[in-house]
C-alpha cells in the first residue's frame, strides 16, 4: 500500500523557502517542484551555482536591456543611410520598420500565454537568440547586394564605373588633362556643370532602387519583434516575482535607468560606423561630411548580433525560479549597489531620463505613494509634455535662402533653371554650395552652373550675377547655437519630468491584474500599442516628412526615390503640432486611469511564498 507523506516546509532564518536545489510553488491544490539549479541541459557545473541569485540576474537582465536599446537607436541612427543606399522614401522606410510591430501584434498574446507558464528565462534566451539572427539578417543586404554603384564610383578602386562613360567629355569640359588620371578622378567627384555630357547617361545614373533588400530588412524587423516580445513580457514579471513588492519600485528604477545607456551606445556605434565607408576596404574620394557619403551601416549589426548571442547563453543558465533572499531585498531598498550612470557628452536627454527614473524609484520605495497619486502625477506630466511640444513649433532656426528653380504644382522643385539648362546635373546627388554674398544655397555646384573647381572654391558659375564670383562647398553659415542650447535645456527638463511617471505607471499595470496574468496583461498592452501607436507611427510620420519634401531623388524605374531636401520650417510646424495632438489624447486616458485606480493597493505582498506550505513528498512503496 502506498501512503502519501506530508512534509511541512518553513522559512529558514534568512527567509528562504527552499529545499536543496528546488523551490516550491502552488498550482491549484498541489505544489510543484521547481529546480533552482543554474545551467543548461547537462551543463550545470558546481562553480556557477552561486550565481543563480537575484543580483546576478538583475545585472544580466539590465545589460541585456542595454543591448536591446542599442538595436533601436542604431536602426534609427542609420535609417537615413539606408534610405540613401536603397533609395527609400520616408514612408517606405516607415513601412519597413513596421515589421517589428506587426509581429508583436500577431504573437504578443501567444508568447505571453505560453511563456508565463514555461521556463521564463529559457524563453527569454530563445527570444534573444532570435534577435541575434535578426541582426545578422539585417546586415545581409550588404553581403548579397554589395555597396552599390553610387558608392563604388566614389572610390579610387572603382572610379571606372562612372569615368569609363564620361571621363573624356568631363575632362575636356572642365579643362583637365587626361594624362593626370588620379587628379582627374578626384576632380570628377565634384558635381560640376558639364554641357558636353549625354543627358541619357545622367538619367541612367540617377537610381537603382531594389525591392529584395527591402524585403530582407522587413523580415529582419518582423522576427526581431518576436524576440523582443519574450524579453519585455517575461523579464519584468520574473524580476517582480523575486523581489519584495515594497522594494520593487527602486529596483525597476535602477534597471530602467541603466538600460537607457543602450540608446546612447547605439547612437555612438552608429556615429562610429557611419564615419567608415560602406566598404571599409576601399579608398573613398570624399569624406564623411560629403552628402554623397554612404557609411558602413551594416557593421554595427554584426557587433550587436554577436553580443545578443552571448547574452542568450547567459540568460539560458538561470533557473526557473531564484532563491528568495530577504536580506538582499532589504539591502536593495536601502543601499543600491549600482555605479553612477556615466556622464557622456551629447546625451543630455538620456541622463535626464535616467535621473528621473532613479529619483522616482527611490521616492516610491521610500514613501509608498498611492496608486491615485502616481496616476495623478502621470496626468500632470502628460499635460506639461503637450505644452512643451506646442512650444517647439516656434523654436527654430532659419538657414540660408535656397535657389531651387521653379516650384511645381505638387510643391516640389525640378531644380532646372535657364542658367543651368544644359548642365545635365544629377538630381540624386546633393552637394550644397553657398553663395556667401547673398547667403544663397544651391543644390550643387552643377546647379549653380559652375564649370571649374580651384583652391576649394567653384568658379565660372553661370547662375551667379557675375562669372567672376565664386561659391564655396557646404551650407551657408548660420548662428543657431543659442536656439540649440535652449532646445537642449527644455528637452532635458521635459524628459526628466516625463520619466518620473514611468515606474508608477508600470506598478499600476502590474498590480491591477492577478499575479499569473501579468505577462498576459503586458502582452495585451503591447498589442494595443503596436496596433494603434508603434505600427502606424513610422508610416504616418514618414508621410508627414514626405509631404514637406522639396526635392525628390529618382529611382531606377523612373519613380521617386528618397527625399533629398526637406522644408525644415514646415516640418517643424507639422511634426510638433501632430505630436502635441497625440499627447493630448494620452492625457485624457491618464485622467481615466487616475479615476479608476482609487482602491488599488500597490504594495500588498502576494500570498505565494509567504506562508508555511504543505507539500507532497515522494511516495514510499
Question: Could you describe the 3D structure shown?
Answer:
The protein has 621 residues and is α+β, with helices and mostly antiparallel strands. Helices cover 53% and strands 8% of the residues. Strands 5-7-6-10 form a 4-stranded mixed sheet, with no helix packed on it. Strands 2-3-4 form a 3-stranded antiparallel sheet, with no helix packed on it. Strand 8 and strand 9 (457-459) form a beta hairpin. Mean pLDDT is 77; it is low at 1-33, 163-189, 201-207, 326-343 and 609-621.
Distance between the termini: 7 Å
Beta-sheet strand percentage? 5-15%
User: How many strand units?
Assistant: 13
Whole-number mean pLDDT: 77
SS-derived structural category = alpha+beta
What profile does the largest beta sheet have? 4 strands, mixed
Radius of gyration: 30 Å
Instruction: Choose one word for the global shape.
Output: globular
Essential attributes:
disordered N terminus; alpha+beta; 3-stranded antiparallel beta sheet; 4-stranded mixed beta sheet; 20 helices; 621 residues
What is the fold's blueprint, element by element?
Elements: E1 6-9, E2 18-19, E3 22-27, E4 30-35, H1 54-86, H2 90-97, H3 99-115, H4 120-145, H5 149-152, H6 160-174, H7 181-187, H8 199-204, H9 212-241, H10 248-259, H11 261-274, H12 299-316, H13 326-334, H14 348-367, H15 371-391, E5 401-403, E6 433-435, E7 440-442, E8 452-454, E9 457-459, E10 472-473, H16 481-499, H17 502-511, H18 518-534, H19 536-547, E11 549-554, E12 560-566, H20 568-596, E13 613-616
Parallel strand pairs: 5-7
Antiparallel strand pairs: 1-13, 2-3, 3-4, 6-7, 6-10, 8-9, 11-12
Amino acid at each position: 500500500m502506498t501512503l502519501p507523506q506530508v512534509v511541512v516546509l518553513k522559512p529558514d532564518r534568512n527567509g528562504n523557502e527552499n529545499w536543496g536545489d528546488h523551490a516550491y510553488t502552488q498550482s491549484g491544490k498541489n505544489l510543484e517542484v521547481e529546480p533552482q539549479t543554474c545551467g543548461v541541459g547537462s551543463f550545470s557545473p558546481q562553480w556557477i551555482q552561486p550565481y543563480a541569485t537575484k543580483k546576478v540576474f538583475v545585472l544580466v537582465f539590465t545589460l541585456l536591456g542595454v543591448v536591446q536599446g542599442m538595436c533601436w537607436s542604431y536602426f534609427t541612427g542609420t535609417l537615413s543611410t539606408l534610405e540613401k543606399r536603397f533609395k527609400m522614401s520616408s514612408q517606405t522606410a516607415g513601412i519597413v520598420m513596421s515589421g517589428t510591430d506587426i509581429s508583436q501584434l500577431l504573437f504578443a498574446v501567444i508568447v505571453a500565454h505560453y511563456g508565463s507558464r514555461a521556463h521564463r528565462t529559457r524563453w527569454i534566451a530563445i527570444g534573444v537568440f532570435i534577435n541575434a539572427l535578426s541582426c545578422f539578417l539585417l546586415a545581409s543586404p550588404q553581403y548579397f547586394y554589395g555597396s552599390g554603384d553610387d558608392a563604388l564610383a566614389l572610390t579610387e578602386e572603382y572610379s571606372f564605373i562612372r569615368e569609363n562613360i564620361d571621363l573624356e567629355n568631363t575632362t575636356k569640359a572642365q579643362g583637365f588633362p587626361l594624362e593626370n588620371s588620379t587628379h582627374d578622378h578626384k576632380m570628377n567627384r565634384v558635381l560640376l556643370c558639364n554641357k558636353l555630357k549625354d543627358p541619357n547617361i545622367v538619367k541612367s545614373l540617377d537610381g537603382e532602387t531594389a525591392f529584395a533588400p527591402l524585403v530582407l530588412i522587413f523580415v529582419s524587423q518582423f522576427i526581431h519583434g518576436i524576440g523582443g516580445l519574450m524579453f519585455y513580457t517575461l523579464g519584468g514579471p520574473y524580476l517582480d516575482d523575486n523581489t519584495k513588492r515594497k522594494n520593487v519600485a527602486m529596483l525597476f528604477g535602477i534597471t530602467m535607468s541603466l538600460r537607457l545607456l543602450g540608446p546612447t551606445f547605439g547612437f555612438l556605434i552608429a556615429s562610429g560606423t557611419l564615419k567608415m565607408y560602406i566598404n571599409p576596404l576601399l579608398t573613398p574620394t570624399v569624406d564623411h561630411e560629403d552628402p554623397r557619403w554612404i557609411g558602413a551601416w551594416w557593421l554595427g549589426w554584426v557587433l550587436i548580433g554577436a553580443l545578443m548571442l552571448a547574452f542568450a547563453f547567459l540568460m539560458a543558465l538561470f533557473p526557473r525560479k531564484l532563491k528568495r533572499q530577504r536580506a538582499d531585498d532589504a539591502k536593495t531598498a536601502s543601499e543600491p549597489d549600482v555605479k553612477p550612470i556615466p556622464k557622456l557628452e551629447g546625451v543630455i536627454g538620456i541622463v535626464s531620463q535616467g535621473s528621473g527614473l532613479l529619483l522616482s524609484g527611490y521616492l516610491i520605495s521610500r514613501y509608498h505613494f498611492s496608486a491615485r497619486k502616481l496616476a495623478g502625477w502621470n496626468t500632470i506630466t502628460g499635460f506639461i509634455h503637450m505644452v512643451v511640444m506646442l512650444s517647439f513649433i516656434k523654436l527654430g532656426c532659419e538657414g540660408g535662402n535656397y535657389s531651387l528653380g521653379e516650384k511645381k504644382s505638387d510643391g516640389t522643385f525640378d531644380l532646372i533653371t535657364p542658367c543651368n539648362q544644359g548642365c545635365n546635373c544629377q538630381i540624386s546627388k546633393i552637394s550644397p554650395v553657398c553663395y556667401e554674398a547673398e547667403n544663397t544655397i544651391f543644390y550643387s555646384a552643377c546647379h549653380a552652373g559652375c564649370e571649374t573647381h580651384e583652391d576649394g572654391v567653384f568658379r565660372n558659375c553661370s547662375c551667379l550675377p557675375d562669372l567672376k564670383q565664386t561659391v564655396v562647398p557646404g551650407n551657408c553659415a548660420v548662428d543657431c547655437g543659442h536656439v540649440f542650447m535652449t532646445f537642449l535645456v527644455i528637452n532635458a527638463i521635459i524628459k526628466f519630468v516625463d520619466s518620473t511617471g514611468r515606474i508608477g505607471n508600470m506598478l499600476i499595470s502590474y498590480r491591477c491584474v492577478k499575479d499569473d496574468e501579468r505577462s498576459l496583461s503586458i502582452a495585451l498592452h503591447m498589442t494595443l500599442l503596436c496596433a494603434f501607436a508603434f505600427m502606424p507611427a513610422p508610416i504616418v510620420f514618414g508621410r508627414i516628412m514626405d509631404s514637406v519634401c522639396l526635392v525628390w531623388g529618382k529611382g531606377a524605374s523612373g519613380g521617386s526615390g528618397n527625399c533629398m531636401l526637406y522644408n525644415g520650417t514646415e516640418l517643424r510646424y507639422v511634426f510638433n503640432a501632430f505630436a502635441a495632438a497625440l499627447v493630448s489624447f494620452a492625457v485624457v486616458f491618464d485622467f481615466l486611469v487616475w479615476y479608476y485606480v482609487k482602491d488599488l493597493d500597490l504594495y500588498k505582498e502576494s500570498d505565494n511564498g509567504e506562508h508555511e506550505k504543505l507539500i507532497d513528498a515522494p511516495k514510499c512503496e
